Amino acid sequence: MDFASLAAQLNTGVIAPELIVIGTLLLVLVGDLIVGRTASTRWTPYIAIAGLLVSVGALYFQWDATDTVSFLGSFNGDALSIVFRGIIALSAAVTILMSVRYIEQSGTALAEFIVILLTATVGGMFLSGADELVMIFVSLETLSISSYLLTGYTKRDPRSNEAALKYLLIGASSSAIFLYGLSLLYGLSGGQTQLGQIADTIAATGLDQSIGLVIALVFVIAGIAFKIAAVPFHQWTPDVYEGSPTPVVAFLSVGSKAAGFALAVRLLVTAFPLLNDQWRFVLTALAILSMILGNVVALAQTSMKRMLAYSSIGQAGFVMIGLVIGTDAGYSAMLFYLLVYLFMNLGAFTCVILFSLRTGTDQISEYAGLYQKDPLLTLALSVCLLSLGGIPPLAGFFGKIYLFWAGWQAGAYGLVLLGLVTSVISIYYYIRVVKMMVVKEPHEMSDVVKNYPAPNWNLVGMRPLQVGLIVSLIATSLAGILSNPLFNLVNGAVEKTPILQAAIAARKSVATDLKLQKAPRLTVSSLK
Amino acid sequence: MNNQIPWLTIITLFPLVASFLIPVIPDKQGKTLRWYALSVGLIDFALIAYALWQNYDLQDSGFQLVERYAWIPQIGLNWSLAVDGISMPLIVLAGLVTTLSIMAGWQVTHKPRLFYFLMLAMYSAQIGVFCAQDILLFFFMWELELVPVYMLISIWGGPRRLYAATKFILYTAIGSIFILVAALAMAFYGGNVTFDMAELGLKNYPLGFELLMYAALIIAYGVKLPIFPLHTWLPDAHGEASAPVSMILAGVLLKMGGYAIIRMNVEMLPDAHYYFAPVLAILGVVNIVYGALVSFAQTNLKRRMAYSSISHMGFVLLGIASYTELGMSGAVLQMLSHGLIAAALFFLAGVTYDRTHTLAMEKMGGLAKSMPTVFALFTIGSMASLALPGMSGFVGELAVFLGFATSDSYTSTFKVVVVLLSAIGLILTPIYLLSMLREVFYGKQTEELSQQILLDAKPREVFIAACLLIPVIGVGLYPKLVTQYYDVKTVEVATRARTAASAIAHQPVQVFTQASAAPKLTAGPELLGILK
């Protein structure tokens, strides 16, 4: 069997975007070895970004592909996975933009950082389409282990070390729990590893009432909730976010989280259709807890990174509304929110990095009076934070409206009301930062802002940072107003994804069955 | 959608688009910016005047200048603008007051770029609120105004500005939750999902559901108007904001509440209005009397005016609750008249503050001698506010009274009590306004004040006050000047509301069974189940 026919048999074309990223990764790695550290910093980040963008381009060409299953069913490059892979690749690209200067200033090697980040990206991208237990676990671990390495990347900083250790210990145990859940699934299904077949076999053997399946579900959800930092599996987040290098935090809060959501959708929808109500119930609880705890605790934070950490917990809660309701609009709203969240959250982190590079601090109180010294940074951070808070006409407003719209459509009134109340709470702490920057008078300026260096964009790595800042600023400002293409994209993704369509159809028939039995919406509403 | 020039879109978006140029305009000695902002304001005002003059048909009670473009069809959000008799005068008011307040902010030297940017953004948001015919778009515009007001209060306000601004944003944001919830609930009710206000009004809601929606909306708009227990943000915000911002707050933003109550509560939910109208009337009376009494107790000039606003907005509620053409017309006239008068008074308070550097009335006194023009203007404003015959306030309040007294929807005892109590409020108004004039302008100057240089009003300031006060007198002498613009519409609103009310009144038994059963059927179990 020659290589070409093997490739055709495995349908290798589907993973072309990942292959491009892997190629870029190898190029950076080898190039760095050949040219040497100082010479390579000049071009490695751009090669990496170019590779990621080409990969996103390759994803675009796969949009209309019909034969999406590859590697004998291990990987499914359907439209849903394309959107998720795009989000992850884009978040990695923006992260690289913001990390050049940061890594430069911390005195560590840039190329290695990029290599590890690209590895994490590959892991996340594979995870988004993984359709088989082994594949899921391998890609999850690729993502996780690279993330541990990234959190500890500034090795001279004790807090970074602490963060990495904490993340590693908690992450390893959660992986173990997740793996145990997978092994139960494997056993219950009589040795199946493909998600679809697992569900079929379990249904066929009549094990759908088995307690083992419920335990498997709980363990799997624990593993996923760790990745998306849902309460109560969030304890690692604030410490890890505070200690890690800021670009890594940005990637963890967007790219890694998106991968977690991709895993959640695929695994829960495909492997647990029998426990539909149960997993929705558990996720509803997680969403409620995340929204409340994330937003309320964020109120009390004094460090910008910690505040963003808690805010990202709250934001994950909002996204979970879309997942829980499980309608067409729900999944679309989830994807839409993740897309706009990508830009607004990365924009906010870019600003935080820029500020800390110039002043060396992350304290919210130190931002006082920044408007006088750096209007661009103030504008960008204000726009991104207000967008996270859901203030019109920014992208976040439309994201939230769509989520709440979908939630109300599906009858999840309680979740929507809670989401609304907690977003008002979130406005309070986001606007606190804006107030700090804009409202403070010159004499109330913090000391670091008084000594704020004049913006100098000509230093090594500042240009990419500036580009990242402006790209996310523009995207956050305009993605809401001109959101039609995005809406079409996410709606198309949901429509073209067979697993979601099957799940939605199944839920609809269940709902009509219940209606026929004259118990209108009883189960549905009590779950939400 | 028609092929005409999209006037409403132009007048709504022009200030916002123009505001994006502000960061790049070279500002030499701070003069270019203010001229730029002012000319944007004037051009937009001229556009408003021209567009309405050319295209607005006074005899038509329906929506005019209708524009409708699909914005995000996936969720049914349309860029849908139109004006009718209620919104048209308010748009003109918003244009006038905002333009004048940009002129009033002539001497803003502190962060002028941000100031004018926010003012122009507000301009767009206000007009957008009055034009929007899609409830989601309305919500968008309503929220759009939130952050600019917050910034305007918290940067250019008085000593307690941060507290006031935070209170403002929290109150309004929590209130607007109810708008969104009501919008979603009504939009998804029944088979067709629509956010179009007219179509929402045509849906047949069960009474319990309608009452629930009405309550939600009245909370949201009650924060804005404000209605008695939800008013506490207002004295702080109005008292702490700088004069140009107070002008907009009192002159236009409060009217957004009144406008929305007429537009949504009365027009879209007429059946629930039947049950809530007495409540509105009582709350209106409470507003009138309570606002007047508390106003009298204030020692801060702007806080006194802020409470007086609360008192005056009570008449709007009373007019809305009256179920008569006259009452409804009076409510709209009272909004317009109060918009002008409050803007003038807050502006003059700002003028006085510029000279005296204090708002505490006990520290002022004897200002009439050194500032005779300001005194004269202030007196005219106060007289207008206390409803002196010949001023617009008189006409508005009289129309509300007459409308309420002739209403046949209430028992005569109820009417007597309501009219009597609000008449007491009417007597209290001169007491606190005249005593304000006495404390500020009569008597002897205090030691501190005599050290200040008390210049009389400059031509610019006289011009602004005149622009606001001349219409007040004009309307007072010849009310038809304004009423002709909206009469057709208010008559229609009142008639429709009355028809709906009489329809309910004639079948009370059926209604009450519905009322007790409906909430449980529609929202009860689900909401309760969720909240568990």
Automatic annotation (TrEMBL), chain A:
It is found in: Cellular thylakoid membrane; Endomembrane system; Membrane. One of its GO terms (cellular component) is endomembrane system. One of its GO terms (biological process) is photosynthesis, light reaction. Keywords: Membrane, NAD, NADP, Plastoquinone, Quinone, Thylakoid, Translocase, Transmembrane, Transmembrane helix, Transport. InterPro entries: NADH-Q_OxRdtase_suN/2, ND/Mrp_TM, Ndh2_N. It is a multi-pass membrane protein. Its EC number is 7.1.1.-. It catalyses: a plastoquinone + NADH + (n+1) H(+)(in) = a plastoquinol + NAD(+) + n H(+)(out); a plastoquinone + NADPH + (n+1) H(+)(in) = a plastoquinol + NADP(+) + n H(+)(out). Residues 130-426 form the NADH:quinone oxidoreductase/Mrp antiporter transmembrane domain. GO terms for molecular function: NADH dehydrogenase (ubiquinone) activity; oxidoreductase activity, acting on NAD(P)H, quinone or similar compound as acceptor; quinone binding. Coiled coil: none annotated. NDH-1 shuttles electrons from an unknown electron donor, via FMN and iron-sulfur (Fe-S) centers, to quinones in the respiratory and/or the photosynthetic chain. The immediate electron acceptor for the enzyme in this species is believed to be plastoquinone. Couples the redox reaction to proton translocation, and thus conserves the redox energy in a proton gradient. Cyanobacterial NDH-1 also plays a role in inorganic carbon-concentration. NCBIfam families: NDH_I_N (TIGR01770), PRK02504.1 (NF002701). This is NAD(P)H-quinone oxidoreductase subunit 2. It comes from Oscillatoriales cyanobacterium SpSt-418. The lineage of its organism: Bacteria, Bacillati, Cyanobacteriota, Cyanophyceae, Oscillatoriophycideae.
Automatic annotation (TrEMBL), chain B:
NDH-1 shuttles electrons from NAD(P)H, via FMN and iron-sulfur (Fe-S) centers, to quinones in the respiratory chain. The immediate electron acceptor for the enzyme in this species is believed to be plastoquinone. Couples the redox reaction to proton translocation (for every two electrons transferred, four hydrogen ions are translocated across the cytoplasmic membrane), and thus conserves the redox energy in a proton gradient. GO terms for molecular function: NADH dehydrogenase (ubiquinone) activity; NADH dehydrogenase activity; oxidoreductase activity, acting on NAD(P)H, quinone or similar compound as acceptor; ubiquinone binding. It is an enzyme of class 7 (translocase). Signal peptide: none annotated. The chain crosses the membrane at residues 6-26, 33-53, 86-106, 113-129, 135-156, 168-191, 211-230, 242-262, 274-293, 305-323, 335-353, 374-396, 416-441, 462-479. Keywords: Membrane, NAD, NADP, Plastoquinone, Quinone, Thylakoid, Translocase, Transmembrane, Transmembrane helix. This is NAD(P)H-quinone oxidoreductase chain 4. It is a multi-pass membrane protein. Residues 132-416 form the NADH:quinone oxidoreductase/Mrp antiporter transmembrane domain. It catalyses: a plastoquinone + NADPH + (n+1) H(+)(in) = a plastoquinol + NADP(+) + n H(+)(out); a plastoquinone + NADH + (n+1) H(+)(in) = a plastoquinol + NAD(+) + n H(+)(out). Pfam families: Proton_antipo_M. Its main location: membrane. It is found in: Cellular thylakoid membrane; Endomembrane system; Membrane. Its EC number is 7.1.1.-. GO terms for biological process: ATP synthesis coupled electron transport; electron transport coupled proton transport.
